[in-house]
């Protein structure tokens, strides 16, 4: 597995990581045995970056990852997130970037993960009531204490990145990035990361599964799958986006790869580290194979013709969640 260095503080990770969220939340039914086997297989294939958050469950996903890594913690680069407050019994409170909560949440995450440190600690969402300098300052204290190795931000605006980076070096920014979601190319985020030497970690690089080519109807989702409320999977948006996927599938077939592999290879070609999420070994293996796919200039031209910036129909999330972005 190829590796890539995030930021300028020396964090080296596999060029493709594993998003673990769906193993515990938001994407329908879960299977702990298969999830553990998927994490095990990821490590065998050289995937080192394993991504979770205290909010996935809540807490359940961190506990799952802790169980998977018991006795072999050194094999993985563990990334988790804070800034969305939960009570110890799992009740959602809301955004909380206050220093006292950041410290308390990290200690709780360490217990759930069964480790004494987190390799990459993200601010999951910015708390609009707390200056980013205070939040990142508290996160920096965790680095000084040896509990955290590197800091990251998620879904932030360029001005926030700059303010945070001035307080403590930011190693990575995690944001949605795919053939369907290229907003960071025009809103200044990507340019800011390149200027400051901060790594890009792309979540949902398959457009929440849309770009896999396996979704043909909104009815494909279980009743508790959050994509049932995702605007891009609703009404006329679904048909328009499916037409784009059909074109991506055509290009992939000509290249003798799957649509997922083409979409992932495109993200990797942009210099990002991708963290496609899956809870099954067969999809993991398909995704990892994308790291061997070469994207040519001809491929880029063909992809740009069918999936230019802004091609996707519909917002990224339902309205109440859209308000939490670009803090």
Work out the helicity level: 25-40%
Question: Which parts are unreliable, with pLDDT below 50 for 5 consecutive residues or more?
Answer: none
- If strands are numbered along the chain, what order do they take across the biggest sheet? 3-4-5-8-9-10-11-12
CATH homolog superfamily: NADP-dependent oxidoreductase domain
Radius of gyration: 19 Å
Order of helices and strands: EEEHEHEEEHEHEHEHEHHEHHH
Q: What oligomeric state do these chains adopt?
A: single chain
Shape: globular
Please report the first level of CATH classification, the CATH class: Alpha Beta
Separation, N- and C-terminal Cα atoms: 34 Å
CATH topology: TIM Barrel
Instruction: Specify the structural class.
Output: alpha/beta
What portion of the residues fall into strands of 2 or more residues? 15-25%
Biggest sheet overview: 8 strands, parallel
GO molecular function: oxidoreductase activity
Pfam family, one: Aldo_ket_red
Domain NADP-dependent oxidoreductase: 18-306
Protein name: Aldo/keto reductase
Description:
Keywords: Oxidoreductase. Residues 18-306 form the NADP-dependent oxidoreductase domain. One of its GO terms (cellular component) is cytoplasm. The protein is of the alpha/beta class and 327 residues long. It has a single domain (3-323), classed as NADP-dependent oxidoreductase domain (TIM Barrel). It contains 11 helices and 12 strands. It has helices at residues 32-44, 60-69, 99-113, 132-144, 158-167, 189-196, 235-255, 259-269, 281-289, 297-306, 319-322, and strands spanning 3-6, 11-14, 18-19, 49-51, 77-82, 84-86, 92-95, 118-123, 148-154, 172-176, 199-203, 273-274. The strands form 3 sheets. The chain has an 8-stranded parallel β-sheet with strand order 3-4-5-8-9-10-11-12. Strands 1-2 form a two-stranded antiparallel ribbon. A two-stranded antiparallel sheet has the order 6-7. Strand 8, helix 4 (132-144) and strand 9 (148-154) form a beta-alpha-beta unit. Helix 1 (32-44) crosses helix 2 (60-69), helix 3 (99-113) crosses helix 4 and helix 5 runs parallel beside helix 6 (189-196). It is globular and about 50 Å long.
């Amino acid at each position: 597995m190829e590796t890539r260095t995030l930021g300028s503080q020396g964090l080296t990770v596999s060029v493709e990581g594993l998003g673990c969220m769906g193993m515990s939340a938001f994407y329908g039914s879960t299977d702990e045995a298969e999830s553990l086997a998927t994490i095990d297989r990821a490590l065998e294939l050289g995937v080192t970056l394993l991504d979770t958050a205290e909010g996935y469950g809540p807490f359940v996903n961190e506990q799952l990852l802790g169980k998977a890594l018991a006795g072999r913690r050194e094999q993985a680069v563990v990334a988790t997130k804070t800034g969305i407050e939960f009570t110890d019994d799992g009740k959602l409170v809301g955004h909380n970037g206050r220093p006292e909560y950041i410290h308390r949440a990290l200690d709780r995450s360490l217990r759930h993960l069964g480790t004494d440190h987190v390799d990459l600690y993200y601010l999951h969402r910015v708390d609009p009531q707390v200056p980013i300098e205070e939040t990142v300052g508290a996160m920096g204290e965790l680095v000084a204490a040896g509990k955290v190795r590197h800091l990251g931000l998620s879904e932030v605006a360029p001005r926030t990145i700059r303010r945070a980076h001035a307080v403590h070096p930011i190693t990575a920014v995690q944001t949605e990035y795919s053939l369907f979601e290229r907003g960071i190319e025009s809103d200044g985020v990507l340019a800011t990361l390149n200027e400051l030497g901060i790594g890009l970690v792309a979540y949902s690089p398959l457009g929440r599964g849309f770009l896999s080519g396996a979704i043909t109807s909104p009815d494909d989702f279980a009743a508790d799958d959050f994509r049932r409320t995702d605007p891009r999977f609703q009404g006329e948006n679904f048909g328009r986006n499916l037409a784009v996927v059909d074109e991506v599938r055509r290009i992939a077939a000509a290249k003798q790869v799957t649509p997922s592999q083409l979409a992932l290879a495109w993200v990797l070609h942009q210099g990002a580290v991708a963290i496609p999420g899956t809870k099954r070994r067969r999809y993991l293996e398909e995704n990892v194979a994308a790291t061997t796919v070469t994207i040519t200039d001809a491929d880029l031209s063909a992809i740009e013709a069918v999936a230019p910036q802004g091609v996707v129909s519909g917002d990224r999330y339902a309205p109440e969640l859209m308000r939490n972005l670009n803090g």
